[in-house]
Amino acid sequence: MEQRICRRCLAKDMPDASYFDNMYEYIRQLDPEIKAEDSLYEERLSFCKECDHLLNGMCRICGCFVEMRAAIRKNHCPDIHGKW
User: Fold this and answer.
1) Is 49 helix (H, G, I), strand (E, B) or coil?
2) pLDDT tens, 5-53?
């Protein structure tokens, strides 16, 4: 059987999302002083979900899990055009 590559999927949308529970727990426990507001976080992820550089929940430019990058307020999109 051919393995399906999940382009434009976030880790939380993948079939084995339980594998990523520790990542989501880390995001939930971020210090409020550095954590992006929920609306900003979701806005960032909406850009990521439309980006050609997203593959299996990771950014192909920098290799990060986009949900972790988006959760920290000071972080930015690594794309040369800075989508967020």
Assistant:
1) helix
2) 566 677 777 666 666 787 888 899 999 999 999 999 999 999 999 999 9
Number of structural domains the chain divides into: 1
Residue 44 lies in a domain: yes
- 3-state secondary structure at position 7: strand
**78 part of a folded domain:** no
Distances (CA, A) of 11 to 71, 72, 74: 14, 17, 21
Radius of gyration of the chain (CA): 13
> How far apart, in whole angstroms, are the C-alpha atoms of residue 35 and residue 50?
23
Within-domain flag for 47: yes
Q: What pTM value is reported for the model? A: 0.78
In a domain, 55, yes or no: yes
